[in-house]
Structure formats: C-alpha cells, structure tokens
Amino acid sequence: MTSNKKETIDSFTHKYSKICQENSWIDPSLYNEYGVKRGLRDKNGEGVLAGLTNISLIKSHDEVDGKRIPCDGKLLYRGYNITDLVKGFAHNQQYGFEEITYLLLFGSLPNEEQLAHFKDILVESRNLPKNFVRDVIMKAPSRDIMNSLTKSVLTLASYDETIDDVSLDNVLRQCLMLISIFPMLCVYGYHAYNHYECNESFYIHRPDDQLSTAQNILKMLRPDKQFTELEAKVLDIALVLHMEHGGGNNSTFTTRVVSSSGSDTYSVIAAALSSLKGPKHGGANIKVVEMVADIKSHVANPRDEEEVKSYLTKILNKEVFDRRGLIYGMGHAVYSISDPRAQIFKGFVEKLADDRDRRSDFELYAMIERLAPQVIAKERKIYKGVSANVDFYSGFVYSMLDIPLELYTPLFAMARIVGWSAHRLEELVNADKIIRPAYESPLIDKDYRVMQER
Ligand SMILES: CC(=O)SCCNC(=O)CCNC(=O)[C@H](O)C(C)(C)COP(=O)(O)OP(=O)(O)OC[C@H]1O[C@@H](n2cnc3c(N)ncnc32)[C@H](O)[C@@H]1OP(=O)(O)O
Ligand SMILES: O=C([O-])CC(=O)C(=O)O
C-alpha cells in the first residue's frame, strides 16, 4: 500500500472509530433496567443456563440454605474427577491423552482391548492430503500458529468429498481425523514460520505410529527428535487438563452455536479455534509468560513483594505491559476459590522448576498467584473470589519443556479439539435446534429521510 493510501485510510478510521464509539455505546444502567446479564452471567458469576451436557461437570460452589457458598473447584470428565483420572494413568505409568479421548467421546473408560483398537484408529485417521504441507502449511506462514491452524482446517474441507454430511458416523470420522492431525498441523506450521520468518533450518519429522500423542509432539518439534520420558509425561498431563471444560466456555459454546446452524465440522472447528485464541480464553497462556517476563524486566527486585504488588497494580490500571488492565492467568468465569487444573499443575511445577534450575521463576509465579487476588479485589468490584486458572502455570511448564511460545495456545487446541468434538456430537444427537438468544433493544422509531434531505 502506498503511504498516501495508508494516510487516507488511517485518517478515515481515526475519525470514524470515534463515531463508532459514540454510536455503539449503550448506557450500562440499561443492563439492569432490562434485566440483561452482561456476558450471559449473573453478578455472582452464575451463567445463564443454555443447555444440558453429560460430557463434563464443573463445580465452584455449594448450596447451603439456598445460598451459594464458594468451594474449591471440581471438574468431572464423564463423571470421573480429573484429579483421579490423572492419578490413575500416572500411577500406571501410562499416557493418558488417548484413553481420556475415548472417555470424552464415548462416555466410558476403555478396557485394554478397546484402547488398543482406538489407538490404531487414531493412527489410521492421521492422514494429511498429498502435498498438504507444501501446498498449504508452507504458504504464507505466520507467527500466529492458531491462524495457521485455522487456515489448514478450513482448507482440509476442500479435500473432503462428504464435507456437508452431518450424519454421526461422518462427523465422528472427521473429528477423529482432526484430533489425530492437529499436532502435525501445529508443529509443521511452527516450523514453516521458524524457517521463512526467523531464518532457521526447516525440517519435517513424521509422527511414529508406536508413540503417544505427547511423545509425537515432542518428536516432531525437536530437531534431533529426542525427548525424555519425563518431558513427554508432563506434556501428556498438560494435554489431559486442557481437553474439556463444559458447554459454556467461549470456544465450546461457539462449537455448540455453529453446530446448531447445521454447519460442517471444518467450519465449526475453525470458529472454535478463533474463539480459543483470544487472550481472555486460551490465548492467556502466552500472555502469562509475556507478562511475567515484563514484570522481571521492570521490577528491580522480583523477590520484593511490595515492588511486585505495585507493578501488578500498574498492570491493572492499564499503565504498563499490554495496557488491557488484565492480570493474565488469574480469575475465571465460574471458579472462585480454585481451579482444580491449576492445582494439579502446581503439584508438579515446583519440582520441575527445581530440576530445570528455574527456582527463582517458580517463586515469582507463586508470589504473583498470591498477590494478584488481593490487587484485583482492591481495584475491581469482585462478586466471587479470583484465583489462578489453568492458563497460569501451563506456559511456565511449556517453557521448561523448551516448547516455543508460539505453540502454547495451539497446544491448548490440540487438547480441546477432543472436547469440541464431543460437544459437537452431543449437540447433533440431542438438541437439533438452532441456538438463538434474544437481544433487547432500546431503539426508537425514526422517520426515514431521502438522501437529499440528510
Ligand atoms: C481457559 C480459560 O479460558 S481460563 C481464563 C483465561 N483468561 C485469563 O487468564 C485472562 C485474565 N482473566 C480474566 O480476564 C477474567 O478473570 C475472565 C475473563 C477469565 C473471567 O472474567 P469474569 O467472568 O468477568 O470474572 P469475574 O466476574 O470474577 O470478574 C469480576 C471483575 O474482576 C475483573 N477481573 C477478573 N479477573 C481479572 C484479572 N485477571 N485481571 C483483571 N481484572 C480481572 C473482571 O474484569 C470483572 O470486572 P468488571 O465487572 O469491571 O468487568
Ligand atoms: O470455562 C471457561 O470459561 C474457561 C475455561 O476454563 C476453559 O475453557 O477451560
């Protein structure tokens, strides 16, 4: 674009964005007047009921004498406590991602034979169309691997002759294919970016049919294909913790909404990915790591609580960092006292940090986790507690596995594709009704005026 053209457009958008701001503004008091729940949530954090699901259950409070009393967060996948599931496969020295995929999609834990067969099916489903890496992934590589993943998903639709068939067996086939190829789409997308934009060497390692999803991610990522058992097990747990979180989280609700219009699997998943990458949702894991780096580079003594507190206050007041006023990795739309997934991360992050010589970083994270709720409560009106969410420690864990920052949110997607798939199937089986909430409007009638009279 010539600099003249750019100036013309910039001056138009500068002027008209102010007009948009003025004409789009709705008096916040009208939300109360019309009984509209901002963000579809009550002030105490309870979401508007939008559906029923058997896939997972999230508990954040107890009902005592008709009152909501916040409690430690609890998450059940198909009725099983996430903490027990993780303990179960970790105790058996197994990888959990494939087993929990089976559980979330089909509703029950697999026996050995069912799991072995299911793993074979995932391997069989892991097929990229001929030359897809060359023709799609290597074209216009971007630092934003979520966008590159979305591009790949939408392009895959062109290779599917039954794209519009929303019968369950076809949708399940499409979902299994996406679940098994997401790691390739993300890791190869990163390699293309790293080569073309960062001048690094380009290599494509193929996944190994005998390895688990977590092992294959590390194998495809590393130049020498090498990783330790501990690294792969830690990544596997991280994947399991991110697989599913009810029907109401922003990306799964998007899955439900777009599925309800009758759209195809590729479009549904592209929409869910677009939701997940937002910094208030899955994109927060990148932001947390950037925020902690920013704190380290601006606070003279990161061990000094008062200095860290004062910097966190500046973040909240939009004076520093990305000036959005958010302390990333803290707070949740549902949980108040704790997010069980953050607790599980915390259970092993300290030991991992000691192993990796990152003790001082761990201490800073732990300090932020302790101070942020106090700072947020002081500066904002809090109706329920604020605590660390799943995104708080995940990025730190990935950094200790030497996973590049660009892949943090894509890793969330590689796991959540399973939850989205289960919800898409559940929506198609049960609801079969277009989702269409209502918007109240304070508009008044205006008389139309022809162009010459305006
Ligand atoms: C996988 C996931 O999606 S987990 C969430 C990942 N996102 C983040 O970590 C980003 C930081 N956190 C946030 O932005 C928020 O906590 C959210 C979006 C997750 C939840 O927001 P809400 O549902 O509005 O939470 P809640 O009702 O408890 O918030 C009360 C007030 O505190 C503010 N608040 C909550 N958490 C934070 C935070 N981390 N930083 C700054 N302000 C916060 C809210 O903006 C809200 O203020 P408002 O009424 O002026 O809008
Ligand atoms: O439930 C939410 O709103 C966000 C969340 O934690 C998730 O999707 O994992």
From TrEMBL:
The keyword Transferase applies. Gene3D superfamilies: Citrate Synthase, domain 1 (1.10.580.10), Cytochrome P450-Terp, domain 2 (1.10.230.10). Keywords: Acyltransferase, Transferase. It catalyses: oxaloacetate + acetyl-CoA + H2O = citrate + CoA + H(+). Coiled coil: none annotated. It holds the Pfam family Citrate_synt. InterPro entries: Citrate_synth-like_lrg_a-sub, Citrate_synth-like_sm_a-sub, Citrate_synthase, Citrate_synthase_bac-typ, Citrate_synthase_sf. CDD domains: citrate_synt_like_1_2. SUPFAM superfamilies: Citrate synthase. It comes from the Bacteria. Pathway: Carbohydrate metabolism; tricarboxylic acid cycle. GO terms for molecular function: citrate synthase activity. Belongs to the citrate synthase family. This is Citrate synthase. It comes from Dehalobacter restrictus (strain DSM 9455 / PER-K23). The lineage of its organism: Bacteria, Bacillati, Bacillota, Clostridia, Eubacteriales.
